[in-house]
Amino acid sequence: MSQEDFASPTASSTPASTAELMEQILYQVKRVVVGQDRFLERVMVAMLAGGHLLVEGVPGLAKTLTVKTLAETVRGQFKRIQFTPDLVPADLVGTRIYNQKTGEFSTALGPVFANLLLADEINRAPAKVQSALLEVMQERQVTIAGETHQVPRPFLVMATQNPIETEGTYPLPEAQVDRFMMKVLVDYPSDEEEFVIVQRVIGEKLEAAPVATTEQLAALQAQARLVYVDPSLIQYAVKLVSATRTPEKFGLKDTRQLITYGASPRATINLTEGARALAMLRGRSYALPEDMTDLVPDVLRHRVTLSYEGLSEGLTPDALVERIMRAVAPPPRPLEHERQAA
Length: 342
Known about the structure:
342 residues; Rossmann fold; Helicase, Ruva Protein, domain 3; 5-stranded parallel beta sheet; two-stranded antiparallel sheet; P-loop_NTPase; alpha/beta
């Protein structure tokens, strides 16, 4: 299938045509990946919003396969880094190499120079290696020996963590955790899905066909920024994030002692950008309250630091976020004439 077969989306593209292209991408991914619908949706939201994903799940749940297949469908570069304790920052971003014949230094770029980067078991490398991703995740650039190099656009980092094997792991720096747009929990497939997985593995190998380009994906990202977000929905995001810092303002007096640190302003931005992307993925040019509420647990769970009291009570970040969502009511859905005016 040639590149010309798919018209590049522009600012004048309709929500229906954009949703159709996104549907084609998802269809090709799901030809290879069985189940994991929610995880796939979050990956697409992160791609449209230009964010990064932190994924937690046991081995063998198609995390690597999902990102690799997605890269194939959009003709993007895919690279995978296996994080280990002996890794050094230069193994990620690159280094300067001295050429004895010419007497000059040349720059060897690292594996971060890709469209989709999979940081596998990121918590198995020490903090100095994890921190090597800070600049590239935020600025989309790498500085080597004082020289700045831009990474390809679009750029998405998906980092995985194994929740069941903690021996030999290192906690992620708070500054890096905050740079992840969402933390997604991937669970086991259902019995029916697992049956299909086995059938596909033992049967004829299926491959995803490229249905878009990285240029089209960049255009989709630009179009996602045109999705209308009502000020009341932004205010809802502000209240949710504020409730993680000062829950007593929202009638959660007993919750204050359970939290050490709340979410940063990045959480508010990510909630708004994520709602835009999810609305676009659902074929709309405006965001609804349910677009944001669907993403709240994923955006906040890794940004809330529980206190010793909270941990001793067996409280989890998800349970805390659920309390906050019950205390902070979402705005009403806009009426039809309001949508048309927007």
